[in-house]
Every structure is written in structure tokens, then in C-alpha cells.
Design a protein that fits this description.
This protein has one domain: Alpha-Beta Barrel (TIM Barrel). Helices cover 36% and strands 15% of the residues. It contains 14 helices and 12 strands. A 10-stranded mixed beta sheet has the order 9-8-7-6-5-4-3-10-11-12.
Length: 388
């Protein structure tokens, strides 16, 4: 079911069901990364969350997901195990959760996990591989780049522990569970050496993430009055290598390239496709994007609980409508932009300001414009040569 149209005196809009369910199975982390949007930014509500999701809440989540899949006749959906660090919940809890989901939900359930990798052991991987869980690992490059930010509370760097996990994932028996690497961009780390350090682990995919920030709390090098396009420049140095060599799939580059050729971006933060992500915290509260913790305290709150509310209640919330509003949820400057169809205004979180709320261009607007137009120029030039 693609969606339904509603209207209450306002222009009717299409409601798109959720298809990506982010479960915060554990609310704490064994690392203390200094850029973490959950623990280091404006919303500190994690402090009031139970450490681990209870079995009761877990069963309620399963029933609500099954209800949503049946109501909207979903053929498939994605479950993303998240935290904190999801492996702190233990493989026993994760096993019960996944088995229960696949027994109950009337749709194909694709399960993935985003982990810092420090707790991935051979025994753990055997369980996850048996459950067909795809594992994404966070790594910011070589030891110097990663340990600059991704450290334990003691100050010890995490890189050597993650490398151990990645060596296991590279083994033939676990290779099928490896989904790829997630790298948060640090302008202090040179782009090509960072990329090459990631390639050493032969990841099937790489996700480069812009550090979370807003107009009120801008990321390094951005904000009002900031000149230049440092993030686009950083990424374009890698794009040229990737475009020529294609050693792995870099999601951001691939999605932008496909969009330039007329496709529709399929990742959050690019394009105008309605967001289908919803989050459930360890206490069972239903929330919007967890990255909204970077905006302000309570930004992701919906005042809904899986014990009493269906996910459809979150679909009707004004914030969900805004996130699914496409062009209508963007300011005039975005609607008139030449790269609107590809950019889509950027990630919802990055638009926040006390003036206008989320009805602003992204704090990364200059970078997104330069990145997309540069990729478009390169692709268009190649297409021209091919036609000739």
C-alpha cells in the first residue's frame, strides 16, 4: 500500500507507511565518541532510558510492527538494531527478538545492525550470521583518524579493537554478514588516506556521514558566515578516485550519480522521497529520527508508546507529515534551487534553527550544491563523450 491521502482543512497529503524500524535495544554505549549526537548534543533524554529494552517491550514492538505491516500490506521491511551499542543487549536478546519478528510479521524482515565493532567476537558473529543479520561497522579511517574521536571513556582509542573485528568479518564464513563501513567526515583527516584506510578492509559499501549539526550548533567549518565548501571539497577528492576506480560502493556518490541520471535517491537526506524511518527507544517510546537529538531537547518526541499506540499514530503526527512533505516542507530558496530533485533540502535534522524550525535550507547547503553540481558535470561530460 503506497499510502493514503488525508486532509483536515489543509491540502491533502500522501501518507507513506514506515518501512524502516530502528530499534534502540540498548541505550548506553561502551565508547565515548566526542561527536556523538546521542550523548554529546542537545537532547540528553537517554539518561532516563532503561539500559536495555525489556522482553515485555520487545514483544510489544514486534506486535506493533506486525500490525503496521498487515495494515499497509507491506511485502518487506527493514529492522535496524541500534543503540547506544546494540551488542550490549546480548546475543540472547537479539536472537529472541529476530526469531519472534520473523514468526509474527507478515512480510519479509531484513535485519541489520550498526555497531562500533568493539564487541564483535567469533561467537557473536556465528550467532548473527545464523540469523542473517547484516552488520555495519563504524570506522573513521586509520588509527589516528578513528582514535581522535572514537575512544573509550578511559581515553583509550578503539581502532585496534575494531580492526580485530574487521579481520573476523573478512573471513569467508562471515563475509556475507558484512554490510559495510560508516565513516563520519573529519576535515582534519585527509580524504584520500582516509578512504584508502577504509578500503584496506574490503568493505562491500562505505557510507560517509556529514557530522550532525544545525544552524544553532553548526558543525566544524559551517554555519552563518562560513565561506567555502570544505565538506564538498573533501568528498570530491574521493569521488574522483571512486568514479575512476570503483573499488567499492560509496552510497552517497552512487545515489547522487543515479539521481543525476534521472533516478530517485533511496537514502535519508537526499531527494524528495518521503521518509519511512521510525525509532523505538528502550522504554518503548516511538520517536522520529534519533539524529534530531542534535536539534533540541525533545525534538524527536511524539508522546507515543508501543504499549498503547500503533505506528499509524506516528504517521499522523505533524512532524511526520513535515518529514514526508517533500517540496511542501522546504523553504522558497530550496524550491527554486536547480538541484532540488537530487538534494531534497538535505537531512531534516540539519535544517533546524530557532527561526522557522525545520523550514530552512540545510546548514550544509553550499556543500551539497557544490557536490551535486560537480558530480553532475562529471557524469554529463562522460555521457556527452559516449554519445559522440
Amino acid at each position: 500500500m503506497a499510502g493514503r491521502r488525508r486532509g483536515n482543512g489543509e491540502a491533502a497529503m500522501t501518507i507513506t507507511p514506515f518501512r524502516q524500524f530502528v530499534l534502540k535495544v540498548h541505550s548506553r554505549c561502551n565508547l565515548a565518541c566526542d561527536y556523538c549526537y546521542v550523548y554529546q548534543m542537545n537532547d540528553q533524554s537517554w539518561r532516563q532510558q532503561p539500559h536495555c529494552m525489556s522482553l515485555t517491550t520487545m514483544h510489544q514492538v514486534v506486535e506493533r510492527i506486525a500490525e503496521h505491516a498487515e495494515t499497509h500490506r507491506l511485502l518487506s521491511l527493514s529492522l535496524i538494531l541500534h543503540g547506544g551499542e546494540p551488542l550490549l543487549a546480548g546475543t540472547g536478546f537479539i536472537t529472541v527478538l529476530i526469531q519472534r519478528l520473523r514468526e509474527t510479521v507478515p512480510a519479509q524482515v531484513n535485519v541489520s545492525m550498526q555497531t562500533n565493532g568493539t564487541l564483535l567476537t567469533e561467537e557473536c558473529l556465528e550467532v548473527l550470521a545464523g540469523l542473517d543479520v547484516k552488520i555495519g561497522v563504524s570506522l573513521d579511517g586509520d588509527a589516528g583518524a578513528s582514535d581522535r574521536h572514537r575512544r573509550f571513556a578511559s581515553g583509550e582509542g578503539s581502532h585496534r579493537h575494531v580492526e580485530r573485528a574487521l579481520r573476523l568479518l573478512s573471513e569467508e564464513r562471515f563475509r556475507g554478514t558484512f554490510a559495510g563501513l560508516l565513516c563520519t567526515i573529519d576535515l582534519n583527516s585527509p580524504p584520500l588516506p582516509t578512504y584508502e584506510a577504509l578500503l584496506e578492509h574490503a568493505p562491500p559499501a562505505v557510507d560517509f556521514l556529514l557530522p550532525h549539526g544545525t544552524w544553532l550548533q553548526p558543525p566544524p567549518g559551517r554555519g552563518r558566515g562560513a565561506s567555502g565548501t570544505p565538506y564538498a571539497d573533501w568528498l570530491l577528492a574521493i569521488f574522483d578516485r571512486w568514479y575512476d576506480e570503483a573499488e567499492t560502493w560509496v552510497r552517497m556518490f552512487g545515489e547522487i550519480t543515479q539521481a543525476v541520471l534521472g533516478g530517485t535517491p533511496a537514502v535519508e537526506g537526499l531527494g524528495l522521497r518521503p521518509s519511512t524511518v521510525v525509532v523505538v527507544e528502550t522504554d518503548g517510546s516511538i520517536k522520529q529520527l534519533d539524529s534530531l537529538a542534535a536539534a533540541h531537547a525533545g525534538a524527536a518526541d511524539l508522546d507515543l508508546q508501543v504499549s498503547t499506540n500503533a505506528f499509524d499514530a506516528a504517521l499522523s503526527h505533524p512532524l511526520t507529515r513535515l518529514r514526508q512533505g517533500g517540496v511542501d516542507s522546504l523553504p522558497t530558496v530550496c524550491r527554486e534551487c536547480a538541484v532540488l530533485r537530487v538534494c531534497g533540502g538535505g537531512l531534516f535534522t540539519h535544517r533546524y534553527d530557532h527561526e522557522g524550525g525545520f523550514l530552512n535550507p540545510s546548514v550544509y547547503c553550499p556543500d551539497l550544491l557544490h557536490l551535486i553540481t560537480s558530480i553532475s558535470s562529471r557524469v554529463s561530460a562522460d555521457l556527452g563523450r559516449t554519445v559522440q
